[in-house]
Amino acid sequence: MRDLANVLRASLGDIDIVGIDGWTGVGKTTLAKNLAKEMGGSFYDLDCALTLNQNKYVSALQTSKISRALTERQRPLMIAGICLLEVLEIVGAHLDAHVYVKRMSSWGWADEDELTGQYFEVPGASGEAVRREMRAYHRKWQPHLLADIEYYRAG
Fold first, then answer.
1. Number of domains composing the chain
2. For the chain, how big is the Rg over CA atoms in Å?
3. Burial 51-90 (b: 16+ CB within 10 A, else e)
4. Helices (H), 13-99
5. Of 10, 61, 140, 152, whose CB is crowded by the most CB atoms within 10 A?
6. Cα–Cα dist 153/126, whole Å
7. What span, in angstroms and rounded, lies between the C-alpha atoms of 53 and 33?
8. pLDDT-based confidence at 121, cuts 50/70/90?
9. Looking at residue 107, what is its pLDDT?
10. Containing domain of residue 56, as a range?
């Protein structure tokens, strides 16, 4: 993580907002909190703006809370969440750096099969609607391909 902070400082110069993107449960929040501490900045998790029990993600976010966090938080700001690029477009914000977190395993990228939908889907299963939303986000926005930096985390 310290190496990532050094890369961000060295290659990107003045950093205002760093986005931490990735599949659910990969460690985005932990990475963003640690980066904020290391770089003397602040942290915001999109989940803090989530209206609970909606079985969806982007449309369940309270965008006014996100906009307020983007304007009021100390810089550099590390902002983490799923569907990050889509959410930032909705609130009219842009990133100075986009980091995509990949959970790695002995066979490679652990979440790739889930991302592409190559697993057995259980209709009505808890969180399945959000997973479909995340797959649609990845197909449209391709954050795993277009990020400035890929951060590999051991699974």
1. 1
2. 15
3. eeeeeebbeebeeeebeebbeebeebbbbbbbbbbbbbee
4. 28-39, 63-72, 84-91
5. 61
6. 25
7. 25
8. low
9. 82
10. 2-154
Structure tokens at 15: 């950093």
* Token duo for residue 52: 């609970």
Tokens of 94: 């842009």
**Residue 17 corresponds to which tokens in the numbers above?**
């907002």
For residue 143, whether the previous peptide bond is cis, meaning omega lies within 30 degrees of 0, is no
pLDDT grade for 109, boundaries at 50, 70 and 90: confident
Structure token digits, residue 14: 């003045």
Minimal CA–CA distance to 19: which of 9, 7, 29? 29
In Å, what is the CA distance from 28 to each residue of 46, 103, 124? Answer: 11, 10, 26
Is the separation of the CB atoms in 21 and 143 below 8 Å? yes
Give the integer Cα–Cα distance in Å for 126 and 88. 26
Provide the CATH number for the domain around residue 34: 3.40.50
